[in-house]
Specification:
Length: 145
């Protein structure tokens, strides 16, 4: 085992954003420089810059000086890309397609969850309206008597 892998392996081949990477000595900061990210992920800085061109959703912020400022979400995405390319053997185009699928599935899951939340809300409103209707009909019948 000649080389050190600085990123943790995911459980199975799950790529759900839990691949945070990182070295034990680095703090959890809001922003990381390209050299820090390169060290955390075991990649060269030029690879990170190349991936920015190839993967449009990998778009770290730049400061006034034009230096890249990576957030944790960017590092998670880099680790996903690295896993797909290096561990799973995807091509760049294949990795792009796979990441789009992950993003689509994630969006679809959010939509289903929102649909269920709205359905439950409507059921609650219907129940409360039925109770109000019952109260109104009880008050009408008591006034008539």
């Amino acid at each position: 085992m000649g080389s050190r892998n600085l990123t943790p392996k995911s459980e199975g081949s799950r790529l759900d954003g839990r691949l945070s990477g990182g070295l034990a000595g680095l703090d959890h900061k809001l922003y990381y420089s390209i050299s820090e990210v390169a060290e955390m992920t075991g990649l060269k800085a030029y690879v990170l810059r190349f991936w920015e061109k190839e993967f449009p959703f990998l778009n770290p912020k730049k400061n006034r000086a034009g230096n890249r400022s990576y957030q944790q979400k960017d590092i998670n995405l880099i680790n996903q890309i690295k896993h797909l390319l290096y561990d799973e053997g995807y091509t760049i185009e294949g990795a792009k397609a796979r990441l789009k699928t992950f993003r689509y599935e994630d969006e679809e899951a959010k939509l289903v969850a929102e649909k269920m939340r709205l359905k439950n809300l409507l059921m609650e409103v219907r129940r409360e309206l039925s109770e109000l209707l019952g109260l109104l009909s009880d008050s009408k019948s008591s006034k008539v008597s």
